[in-house]
Specification:
Layout (H helix, E strand, L loop, with lengths): L1 H27 L2 H24 L9 H21 L3 H21 L2
InterPro entries: DUF2568
Keywords: Membrane, Transmembrane, Transmembrane helix
Protein name: DUF2568 domain-containing protein
Length: 110
C-alpha cells in the first residue's frame, strides 16, 4: 500500500516540476511569443528528456547513479526556475520534497 502512495507522490513531484518550468517560462519571457515558447517549450523539452533517459520505460535507460544525478538536476533546475520568479519559499519547499521523495524512491527501490 505504501509503495502505491509513494509512486503517486513521485508522479506528482514530476508533474509539479513540469508545471514549475512552464510557470517560469510564462513569467520570465518578454512578449507573448517568447512567453509561449518558454512556457510551453521548456516543459515539453524536459518531458522529452525525462522519457528518453529517466522514465521507468525510458528509450535510453541509464544506470542508477546517473539516473539519480539527472533527476536531481531536473528537480533542482525546476526549483531554481521557481526561485527566479520570486517564489523563494515555494522553490525551497519543492526542492526539499523532491529530494525526500527521491531518497525514499531509491532507498525503498520501488
Amino acid at each position: 500500500m505504501f509503495s502505491y502512495i509513494l509512486m503517486a507522490i513521485i508522479f506528482l513531484v514530476e508533474i509539479v516540476a513540469l508545471v514549475a518550468y512552464g510557470y517560469w517560462g510564462f513569467h520570465i519571457g518578454k512578449g507573448i511569443g517568447m512567453k509561449m515558447v518558454l512556457g510551453i517549450g521548456t516543459p515539453l523539452l524536459v518531458a522529452f528528456f525525462w522519457g528518453l533517459f529517466l522514465a521507468p520505460k525510458a528509450t535510453i535507460p541509464v544506470n542508477v547513479p546517473l539516473r539519480i544525478f539527472l533527476k536531481l538536476i531536473v528537480f533542482g533546475l525546476a526549483s531554481v526556475a521557481v526561485y527566479a520568479t520570486g517564489r523563494h519559499i515555494l522553490a525551497g519547499d519543492f526542492l526539499v520534497v523532491a529530494i525526500i521523495v527521491l531518497i525514499l524512491d531509491n532507498v525503498l527501490e520501488i
